[in-house]
Amino acid sequence: MFSQLSVPMLLIEDSSRVIALNPAAARLFKMEPEELEGQFWSGLDGQLNQIIWKKRLRELEDKGSFVYNTDLVTSDELLRPVEVEMVRTGEGLTLIYLHNLLAEGIDEADLELMSNDGNVGFWMYNRVDDVLYMSPYLRELAGLDESKSAREVAYQLQERILPSDWDRIRPQVKELLDEAGAFDQLLHFTGSRGTMNLRFFAQSSGNALHVTRLFGMIRQENDLIATDHVDSISGELAAFSIDQAKDLIFWTRPDGTVPYANQAASDLLGYTREELQKMHAGAYTIGFKGERVEAWWEKMRSERADQSIWEVVDKEGNHYLLDASITYLRFGKEEYTVGFCRNITELEIARRRQAILEFTLDHSKELILWLKEDGTIHFVNETFLERTGADLSDIEGKHISMFLDLPDEHIRQEAKARLESGETLTGEMELKLMSGKKLAVKIRISNLTYGGEVYSCIYLQDMTAKRERDIQLKLSAEALDSAADCILWLNVDLRINYINGTLLDLIGRKREDIIGAKYSKVFPQLDQKSIFEEQTLNIDVISNSGEELTINLNVSRITDNNQSFFMLVGRDMTGQREREQSLETAYEEIRRLKDNLEDENVTLREEVGSGYNVNNIITVSPKYKKVLHQIGQVADVDTTVLITGETGTGKELLARAIHQLSERSDQALIKVNCAALPENLIESELFGHEKGAYTGAVGRKRGRFEMADGGTLFLDEIGELPLDLQSKLLRALQEGEFERLGGTETLNVDVRLVAATNRNLQEMVRQGSFRADLYYRLNVFPIENMALRERPEDIPVLVEHFTRKFAKRQNKKVTKINSSDLAKLKKYSFPGNIRELENLVERAVVLCNSETLSIPLNVQQEKTVKGEAPFLQFEEMQRQHIINALIMTEGRVTGPNGAGVILGLNDRTLVSKMRKLDIKKIDYLKAYE
Ligand SMILES: Nc1ncnc2c1ncn2[C@@H]1O[C@H](COP(=O)(O)OP(=O)(O)OP(=O)(O)O)[C@@H](O)[C@H]1O
């Protein structure tokens, strides 16, 4: 029984002498059973001696059994790694079971699995037993018989390997047998599948004394090489090329260490092979760290092979890209991956550079094409395809004449010669598009010789935009030349860069004579300092006709493209200066008066001089001065003026001032409130009507246009004019003629028009409720009137002005104004502007019983001052304000006790506003019910 068991077993005495053993045990020691019997275990166990045995024995007696690993000394003096299990049997005897670890190191099933892995074969040589394992793939490849001994196999292999390869690997194999290590080599191998390149890996491991086993793998390197080819390659050459193989080879373990890396790996990474063996792969492989290593191993275990690109960094910090084909291997419990890596850094860089280049070409705004010497198209960029509408297939092999008309032969020859001498040719041409249309292009051609061939590279630049720009520039230049304003443009060195026709006419010079000249040569009266410092300056010139003119110029410094210019724009202002002068004096006077206002209860002064009361426009605000300045400028030029601004800002007042300052002041100013007139009456109001023109037209009536003949027509609230009347008005304005309603006679009038509105006409034009042509006709000289909240410094003077006006009207004596009330007024936003302030003062004067006037704000106004009420949109504020007034009048709209009176609006205006703002009875009735 004992002798038939396949498990090697020995029975020993306490002295460790072998008293019995089975044949399996004898085979393990490579001895005859008789030879072993009588020997001492302490001599057979390579790690034991008599003293240690004594200790073991005591331990064994205590525990009854134990297991340990050791090496057995075999008959040929080799050490065999084994697992020893000792069991105490009683009567001073010990039974020993032995497990041959070498035999268990390989798992045939795993080998099978690995061999399925395409072109990888595995082998293992158990040196102690002289047994060679080969995976089926390898056996099949080599056409070798499994039953052969290692030596026989080696002989057979020798015959199949190129002699020079054999000579090279033999010493390396020997070395591996002497000392544990590894190598890999490329071999030329002729086997069942013809001749092929094989990569041959070997690694050895052993115990303290010697190498016990060798193992490794072979991997097919590339496609089969036809035998006759190989024959023609000399062995030496093959050996050389294998030595020069550039692949990097790494073996890695699951813990990330690299037990083996080849010379190419060491060369690239700059670490010695010994250094590499001590390093973790993550030390030079980007991203190969921590969880990623584990995940990667998981993947390798399940997929067994991988082809991927890795980035590594060498000792110096240089980065490389490796294209790795990696295989998973398992030897018993040991796992490895083997990676064959090709350095593709340069390839990759070239690929990326190429991609960038292609991207740049394709995204270039220019159309690019390359021609071969015979004029056929070699390459075009994306832009070319897009712009011409061509498809690559349309173009392939086509001649350039498909897109460009070639010049005459002799010009072509000349161009060819110039290109050959390295010149770049430029010009303008027309590119024929696929649609049949033509595109104006600027062309640039140069030659390039590449790979022995000459190519012409053509860049085409679309000129359409440039041509359009040129036309625009020409038009703007013409517009500038005929502008009413004088325009002068100086470079930073104060030389004349541009001067427009208007100014040239005034000074009677020719443009070509003065462009580029120093300004002082042409305008000696302009001094340099004022150009640099002043925003506006006047120059006096003597006109062609000998007249003395004053030109008022606005100076602005313009920087464009890092170049600075001075732009001087202005008009002949002769005659206007005096008017401005008088305004200036008035303004100064007002300022002086303002300074005199007292802190405490403000004392009212005696009626002030005329300066305070320029056309009843009261202001001390420097900002408002600009508006007045504009009035002064435009008053007697007779142009149409459009005054915009919120309600109650004094637009009508400005209109009247324009009329009074104009040469028409002794004629009538006729006002039409477009909002107040019912729609069906406006036309007859404006243009008049003949008797019987419509029901109710009992007699002939002159229209306001007619009435304003020779004077000024003021169209207030022009934004409310119905659309059909807008066109009639436009005609009257443009042609100066119209017919009365129901009349046939065409009337001509000389009318200066001033219009006003609190609506945003531009927005109305956009929405289609105001005619664009009328808007442009009216907007010749726009004046934007300021809201009172933008000039609170005017509040005290206005309060004073209105107090005086109403006190006089109501026959009251008011000498002072409560200053804290005044302070509050200054903080209030006055959505109704001056009209609201005027009403407030009027009310205050009515209620005033002493010489000091209190001007309290109402609750809503107070809330706004304290910031408690939200700042209302203008229309909403108007709505609220009207509702408040209606609440105060208990719902009465018209008549002497109606809201119109409190609001300072005539009844019709109020009713139309209420309609517009959708104010219904319900909005104000509730409050007083
Ligand atoms: N600067 C000012 N000095 C004195 N009074 C002024 C001033 N501005 C406006 N007012 C007075 O304020 C009131 C409103 O002015 P005006 O009617 O001119 O305003 P508006 O802008 O035309 O108003 P709306 O848009 O409602 O027609 C008038 O009584 C006017 O005399």
From TrEMBL:
<dbReference type="InterPro" id="IPR025662">
    <property type="entry name" value="Sigma_54_int_dom_ATP-bd_1"/>
</dbReference>
<dbReference type="InterPro" id="IPR025944">
    <property type="entry name" value="Sigma_54_int_dom_CS"/>
</dbReference>
<keyword id="KW-0175">Coiled coil</keyword>
<dbReference type="Pfam" id="PF25601">
    <property type="entry name" value="AAA_lid_14"/>
</dbReference>
<dbReference type="GO" id="GO:0005524">
    <property type="term" value="F:ATP binding"/>
</dbReference>
<feature type="domain" description="PAC">
    <location>
        <begin position="535"/>
        <end position="585"/>
    </location>
</feature>
<dbReference type="Pfam" id="PF13426">
    <property type="entry name" value="PAS_9"/>
</dbReference>
<feature type="domain" description="Sigma-54 factor interaction">
    <location>
        <begin position="617"/>
        <end position="846"/>
    </location>
</feature>
<feature type="domain" description="PAS">
    <location>
        <begin position="472"/>
        <end position="516"/>
    </location>
</feature>
<dbReference type="GO" id="GO:0006355">
    <property type="term" value="P:regulation of DNA-templated transcription"/>
</dbReference>
<dbReference type="InterPro" id="IPR002078">
    <property type="entry name" value="Sigma_54_int"/>
</dbReference>
<keyword id="KW-0547">Nucleotide-binding</keyword>
<keyword id="KW-0805">Transcription regulation</keyword>
<dbReference type="InterPro" id="IPR000700">
    <property type="entry name" value="PAS-assoc_C"/>
</dbReference>
<dbReference type="InterPro" id="IPR000014">
    <property type="entry name" value="PAS"/>
</dbReference>
<dbReference type="Pfam" id="PF00158">
    <property type="entry name" value="Sigma54_activat"/>
</dbReference>
<dbReference type="InterPro" id="IPR003593">
    <property type="entry name" value="AAA+_ATPase"/>
</dbReference>
<feature type="domain" description="PAS">
    <location>
        <begin position="242"/>
        <end position="276"/>
    </location>
</feature>
<dbReference type="GO" id="GO:0003677">
    <property type="term" value="F:DNA binding"/>
</dbReference>
<keyword id="KW-0238">DNA-binding</keyword>
<feature type="coiled-coil region">
    <location>
        <begin position="576"/>
        <end position="607"/>
    </location>
</feature>
<dbReference type="InterPro" id="IPR058031">
    <property type="entry name" value="AAA_lid_NorR"/>
</dbReference>
<dbReference type="InterPro" id="IPR027417">
    <property type="entry name" value="P-loop_NTPase"/>
</dbReference>
<dbReference type="InterPro" id="IPR025943">
    <property type="entry name" value="Sigma_54_int_dom_ATP-bd_2"/>
</dbReference>
<dbReference type="InterPro" id="IPR001610">
    <property type="entry name" value="PAC"/>
</dbReference>
<keyword id="KW-0804">Transcription</keyword>
<feature type="domain" description="PAS">
    <location>
        <begin position="1"/>
        <end position="39"/>
    </location>
</feature>
<keyword id="KW-0067">ATP-binding</keyword>
<dbReference type="InterPro" id="IPR035965">
    <property type="entry name" value="PAS-like_dom_sf"/>
</dbReference>
<protein>
    <submittedName>
        <fullName>PAS domain S-box protein</fullName>
    </submittedName>
</protein>
